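Please produce the structure of this protein holding zinc ion.
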Amino acid sequence: MDKNFILSFLLICNIFSWLIVCDLIKPQPLEVIFFDIGQGDAIFIETPQNYQILIDGGPSSIILEKLAQEMDFWDKTIDLIILTHPEHDHIAGLIEVLKRYNVENIVWTGVLRDTAEYKEWVRLIENEDSNVKIAEAGQKIITSRIFFEILYPFENLERQNIKNTNNTSIIARLIFNNISFLFLGDVYKSIERKLVKENIYLDSNVLKVGHHGSKTSTSKELLEAVVPEIAVISAGKDNRYSHPHNEVLDILNDYGIKVLRTDELGDIKVISDGNNIRVQ
Ligand SMILES: [Zn+2]
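Below is the modeled complex.
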């Protein structure tokens, strides 16, 4: 073999090995993926330290395909699951996840609900060897450089019988340096206004719009307190509730907020280095 060829071959190998090393030490971004799981919510978060969080699981086992796309095939552990409230379009997929993954930590409200899915959820979390916590405003979930603030419910709702659990949804704000996300679950305008009235700091770059873009949610008081650049709506294509409603799209448009919809775009991945965000 020609000497020059061997030399350039070795040089290329050297460049490749440095590229691999650089890739390993390069800081990883935060990824927040709003899955297109039909009518419901399922949001997967992977932190720069590879801490994996799932907020709600959507209405079916489609969540398993979505997780398989994002997680390594050998990775069967999820660090944290947050169930915002125990309605079908949020809890059903999580039941499938609990059956197939080891879940280290679970945060939910403990509110009562009389459905077969609810009973299955309770049975599974009792059998799962995980750390289960009841969410309440003021709590913080910290994972090295990233943390969640629980803003709502204002009090412990464990074993409480509440007619409409939409308004019991966990509201959480995710903070990574200068970037933040606000997750509203399915709460209505009455709860949004309570948060604003209580002077809770809501300012966030990305807003997960409440209740799939239903006109029951997204008040102007909320938008003026959050001032988001991006609003994400998780709704199923041609869903039977006609979510998102035009009233909500209009108000978001009036405030100049960029709207991203799972029913139009499929999975929406928001990536951040802690100072900027970009959407994939
Ligand atoms: Zn819902």
